[in-house]
Every structure is written in structure tokens, then in C-alpha cells.
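Lecture notes, part 5. Sequence design as translation. It can be helpful to think of inverse folding as translation between two languages: the language of shapes and the language of residues. The source text, in C-alpha cells, appears below.
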């Protein structure tokens, strides 16, 4: 079992290796397919919402919630999740509460869909590093008073900065990535 969280290991200096350019799966993982404006709504569930089990009502509510809030010329996503990292040894699962906060200008930089997709890619890359090869699950939770780990993502016209913060130790690890470097257009 690991004693502490190493943000330097999770966010390597060359962030491009953690952030591949395949965004489709990440959008779907976050429920972003609902953002497609031409998408047809899914067929109604055969189980009426009133008769649905409590767990089903929770995921229905999560799927219906807007991820992106807009105010003061900015798009913002704030999510809280309980991450459970499954260990091979029974009874040694690790749990972390995580807050993801992502922000970008509302217009002129990137689309709402790409904002969601890149936020999710950063978050999934972080979780893969945190799990260090182990299986993990996530569960959306209400905002807790305190979290174990905070991930702050700030996007602008030039690129983005990701900062992982271990709230227990205060360790911070900011990583900056230019869009031109990410897309290999800088020569």
C-alpha cells in the first residue's frame, strides 16, 4: 500500500504523454454525448422514475445534470467524486475524495464540447496515475467539506494549466501545456 500521493509521478513534465488526442471515449465517460445538439433523446426507460430503485434515481439525476455552468464570460465544471482504487489484497482498497474544477473562457477559445472532453481527459489521466495500474471506480458525490485531492484545470487561448493539489500535505504540482505543443504544430 502506498503511504503518500506523489503528484510529480501523476503529472509528468511532458503532459502530452498523459493526454492522448482521442477524445470520444472521454466525452462518453463524462456523459458528454448529451451535449451533441443534433442527438436524439434516448428511448424512455421501461421503469417509470417513481418506481425506480434509489440507486437508479441517483444515476438518472447525474445524467440529467448540466456539467458546464456559464457565468461572467467563463465556462466552469466542478465535480466531486469518491475514487476507489481496487487492490489485489482484499480489504486494502484505497479511497480518495476528489474535486475537479475546470475553467475556460466562454467564447473564442474552444467549444463547450471540447471543454468537457479535455477536462475529462485530464481527470482520467490523473486517475490512471493515481491508481498506478490498479483498477478503480468513481462515484459522483455531493460536495464534501474537505477533499483529499483537488485538480484545477485552467484553459485559455494559448493552452492550459493543470494543478494537482494533495490537500493533506499541501503538495502542488502545476503543469502547463500549449495547444500548439499538444497538437504538434510548433516547429
Amino acid at each position: 500500500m502506498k503511504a503518500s500521493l506523489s503528484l510529480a509521478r501523476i503529472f509528468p513534465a511532458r503532459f502530452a504523454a498523459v493526454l492522448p488526442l482521442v477524445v470520444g471515449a472521454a466525452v462518453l465517460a463524462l456523459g458528454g454525448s448529451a451535449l451533441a445538439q443534433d442527438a436524439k433523446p434516448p428511448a424512455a426507460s421501461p421503469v417509470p422514475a417513481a418506481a425506480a430503485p434509489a440507486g437508479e434515481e441517483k444515476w438518472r439525476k447525474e445524467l440529467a445534470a448540466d456539467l458546464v455552468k456559464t457565468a461572467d464570460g467563463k465556462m466552469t465544471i466542478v465535480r466531486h467524486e469518491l475514487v476507489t482504487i481496487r487492490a489485489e489484497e482484499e480489504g486494502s482498497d484505497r479511497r480518495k475524495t476528489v474535486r475537479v474544477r475546470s475553467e475556460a473562457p466562454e467564447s473564442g477559445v474552444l467549444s463547450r464540447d471540447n471543454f468537457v472532453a479535455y477536462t475529462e481527459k485530464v481527470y482520467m489521466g490523473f486517475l490512471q496515475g493515481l491508481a498506478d495500474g490498479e483498477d478503480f471506480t468513481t462515484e459522483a458525490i455531493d460536495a464534501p467539506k474537505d477533499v483529499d485531492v483537488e485538480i484545477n484545470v485552467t484553459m485559455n487561448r494559448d493552452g492550459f494549466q493543470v494543478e494537482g493539489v494533495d490537500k493533506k500535505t499541501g503538495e502542488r504540482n502545476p503543469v502547463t501545456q500549449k495547444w500548439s505543443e499538444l497538437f504538434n504544430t510548433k516547429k
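The translated text above is only one of many valid answers, since several sequences can fold into similar shapes. The mean pLDDT is 76.
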